[in-house]
Amino acid sequence: MKNIVVCTTAGTTAEWWFNREDVGHPTWDALWRACTTSLGTIAFGSFFVAVIQTICYVMTKVNKYVEKYVSKSIACLIKIAVCCLKCLQKLMEMFNFYAYVVVGIYGYGYCHAAGHVMSIFLSRGLLLVEEGSLVSMVLALGVACVALSTAALTALIVSQNKDLLPGISYPVESAFTSGLAIGCGIAQIMFGVIEAANATVFISYIENPHALHNDHPKSYIKLHDAWVKMGKTEVEHDVAERFEETEEERAAA
Are 24 and 32 contacting, i.e. CB atoms less than 8 angstroms apart? Predict the structure, then answer.
């Protein structure tokens, strides 16, 4: 579900970026693509993460058995392997996130999108990681604030009206815990959309600044000024132009 939201948000943001005139309802169209033509791509990428998670789970269970009945030294090696696999899982999740953004922008399949993301990492990898880490930290703080605010408000309401939860031994504490979980879930969905939109804008500007200049000049000026202050240069030709030319050549052939 999270990956479908990423693709939908990326597709909607891309429609605004390129100002495509043939789109009537960009959000619904992006959601339809994410749930139909791009669903196999999303499932394929999620499969790799699921495999790593399964291996980590199995090795964790094996480690407990080995540590108890076989050898602690072997168990230590297994723990190191599990730690490496978890790091690989985090890297795969980050890579998939940007791959799904590319899928939402251009409609690529998973392998094509993965290769495209790899080329971005090779050329702008450090900048991409810095931007993503900074945004993730800010959004994580936002999720924490929303969750705590929801929990506090829920606990306050219940403390003033304890009859709202009859038969519960600790109504205020229960309300606080429930509010925390609900607030965290809602905030993660909300800020997940913001994170995906931000990644889409960032990648779109790296690859297609001229499209923004043509369609949304005021927004372009703000991004361009910030880009110049960082000492970066824009690409001479948009990636989307080369993509459209390739598609036209394929159609002609």
Answer: no
Please give the helix or strand (H or E) that residue 151 lies within, else none.
helix 110-160
What is the amino acid identity at position 248?
E
pTM for this model (two decimals): 0.80
Give the pLDDT score at 247.
47
Give the burial string for 30-39 (b: 16+ CB within 10 Å, else e). Answer: bbebbeeebe
The answer on pLDDT for 45 being more than 80 is yes
Comparing CA positions, the residue from 187, 194, 44 lying closest to residue 132 is 194
Helix axis angle for 2-18 and 171-207, nearest 10°, is 40
- Tell which residue, 143, 101, 79, has the closest CA to residue 4: 101
